[in-house]
Amino acid sequence: MTRSVLWFAAVSLAACGATPAPGPVQYVTGGDATGDAAKPADAATATDAASDQAPEPETTPADITAPDIAAPDVPTTGDMQQPPVTAAGGPDLVVDADRDGLVDPSNAGDQDFETVFDGEHGATFLPNLDDDDGDHLEDVFDEIVNGPDDELDLTRVVLRPWPQAPAGSKGVLSLDPEGAKHVRLWVRTATGDPVLILGAWGKCFPKPTGACTNWSGCAVPDCTYQTSQEFNAGTIHAGLELAIEGLGFRMDEGWSGEVTITLTIIDESGKPVASKDAPDGKDEVKLRVAPWMLHGNTSKFDKVRSHGYSKPFVTDLNVAVPAADLLYETHNYNGVAMWNDVWTQDFFQTGWVSVPAPGGKVHGMRLFNARPWGREGSSGKQTEDLLPITWLRKNVLAKDSGVFRAYLKDWYGSTYDSHGNHDLLPPYKKGNEAFPVGRILTGDGVLKDTQVFYKAQRAQAPVLVVNTKWLVVGHCDEILSYYPAKTERGWKLAVASDKMAKEMYEAAQKAGHGAVKQFIGKKNYDPLTDEQKNAEISIDDVLKDENLLKWSEIAGVETAKALDTVVQAVGLAKDEVIPIPFLTEALGGQKKVAWNPGTVNSLIMGDFIAMPNPWGPVIAGADMFQKDLQDRLGTAVNGLGKAGAGMKVYFVDDWSYHVGLGEVHCGTNPEGAPLLGYEWWKTGK
Amino acid sequence: MNMKRILRVAIVVSLVLPFSAQAAGRGPAGVAIAADDVPAADRAQLAAWIAAYRKTNPGAFAAVAGVNGCKPAGYTQARYPEPECSRELRALGAGVLPALIEALAFAVPPGHAQNAKEKKAFALGLTFAAGLAQNPKAAPVLRAIATKGNDADVRREAGLGLGRIAAIGAAGNGELRWLLDHAKAGDPVELDALAGLGESMTVAGAERLAQALQAKPAAAKATVVATALASLASSWAWQARARKDAAAAGVGLQVRTIAARSAVQALAGQTGEAREKLFDVVAMAKLAETAHLLNDARGSADAQLRADLDAFQRRYALTTR
After folding, report:
1. pTM for this predicted structure
2. Confidence class of residue B280 from pLDDT cuts 50, 70 and 90?
3. Is A532 on the interface with B (CB under 8 A)?
4. Which residues of chain B lie closer than 8 angstroms to A562, CB-CB?
């Protein structure tokens, strides 16, 4: 039996009067005792524009019978049970401040830290951006709780019963005005149905029109906010179970990310009812919205996506991905007609949100962050259906799998906003600086909206920026990657090395292999004659190419700047940096891109790596580059892989991606469930 | 003529005009310049050369016309979603040079340059590939682009192309002289000529760039000069040349030494990006005396320069490990 079913059973018992049931509680609108308004009468009118996603409000605050009292422990999410009676008395809101996944009024950890947030204590809640009821709409876009699965995504807050409260007293439950713009607070009725009582009503999601430059300043004129509700003594006596969900993330500095819920008990004259536990007649709790967490190369994934247009690419990934025990899914015209973006890494970023759950587990959902622009194709049309958010809504939005956008304007940004330019340094500590859930790393040029968003998430910030403007595509995944390793840090940095590639060519030439060709059978682009198509080139000719070597040397100098940024930030030792050999060429305008398949640009799946096939010179029966990579990555020599025995290296024919200025990482995107061991709340940020 | 037809004609004219010098009453035009921009004698020779080449190598023209990266069908699918076809054009090799020249100065291949950004990218790619062909026959067109082209980036690419022709030795001496003549303060193409000298692989080029640095130029010019010197100082490029011509090793050392020494001397007088580029020169030159040069610079350095020297030496160790 699911926890939800258990909860509904508890409510049914309460409704049947199995225990002494308190009288009906009338929820008032605007502070008076009526309660039939579709929107709260005293609600503040928002200053901002609405989304066309959210339907009109459906909920009317209704008569609510407080549920019965049950077990002492209430899970923070999932089925709701009833709080225990207090002997001491006084107004008491309770949250899971000790992060054990349970709301327990008898637990000092929950009681004593209900207004703090640090590495040890503090309650949290989720932005409810998945689609548990399968209506192709984010759950938070409507004003109902979308079934038992959706209930699991709501964080519980308990109004502890106070049977000794004076008859005739009233309770006032309120949200701080800023927090009210970002949440919905529900209460469980006697019939078992959650009813929305506080927070945001209506179309509260700004349209990405570019009309505003920060989230706090975005107009949502059809959104209203309810910040307080009164209820009568019966409810105070019996207690209430509340549940909170976030409308979204903390998008910028305009909101702290925290919501304060206050319970005030007043007498008939409006004066606070003092008690031993609450001399001022009040109790207050705070909760913080969960941040979006980026996945990085060393995350635990369970699925990989790519476009299906390249048969060799798909064929090779169909070997590598299942070998890593991951699901592999290709998309062509799946869900969105003529979806033409083969750069799956770039048009969305995978991540997740989580909150503590009982038993040391975490609860949350996958969350996919859409790029602001799509590929308009030859038509040049910049329409809604070509935006990544549309593709994500149709193909990814599902139970425990949500989508969002962190930008204020559609069809905006540049190549730097592709998510191959947004990565995550695995967890590290250097001196007093600790990044236990990793640190976001980007290349140059990222949209200000995104920078502000990353900073606002706090847990994986501040962002480390490396120089990538010297690259044509300009993405950090063209030069840097991260491998698991059996070291104290747990990972090593992979970095593009033109120097190593040149030295390998030189060594092969010196050994008498100068005439050996590489890129055998590979074609360049679409020229007409066979001679022009042929990409084959000998080692001797590579080493005589003044331009290619000069460009590669420049690339080495620029890469060293990026490497230095990471080495300084993390404190990496020399043996924690793994050079990955390939040369670099310049294009018109002198910006650079990998000349050989850029083997650093790989898909990492735990101890498995899907790497561009380098199509290098075959010497003594082995591809010179493949052999080197297998020798250094696939054996114990560098201590890579969880056990330090090396990684399983799979080479993928990504030539069609290579000539399109990308590689394996660019063409794939892995995802995974919320990660254990990456509890953001422990960072205290 | 009814209104619909008038409107249609107006739209067509407005689309065509910006991309066609011919429509403005001039002669034939390519994507970068009009044929009239090329001196008459050179123009006639080139036209004849192109016509003759078309008869024997029609595929070269079809190949240039066929590059995809500057057409929507190509670039909208590439990871970099902007028009970019220089890689394709380069891959076609020097054998398509007449077709490149024709597209630059005489006639835009069908299907190309449908809008301003496609036009620019195609011009940039053609100029890039024409320079890489290192054939003096391209020089008149590259000079005309450098002096009369409309786009600054394409003009710069033409300067680089002339420098690459200057790098081929005696046959390129004319372009070396042209660059040296124009790499002078006050010349309208001074910066493009200085950039071009960075591709010339000559001692004369290194000396002129060093001279420009000694004059303590403003930051923008210093950045151009330092970028050119870094390119000229590339130890790897000189190794590649020495594989073809052993005597080049000595010239290379001479050039690298001029470049690195002048860059280090200029460090104190520059800040920001220009100083960063000066450090790149030192990194590219990879002289045995690098540590010694940097220690000398440290002696008279202020606190910021000392910090920058520390950072560079750290990075330099990373590039060489």
Report:
1. 0.89
2. very high
3. yes
4. none
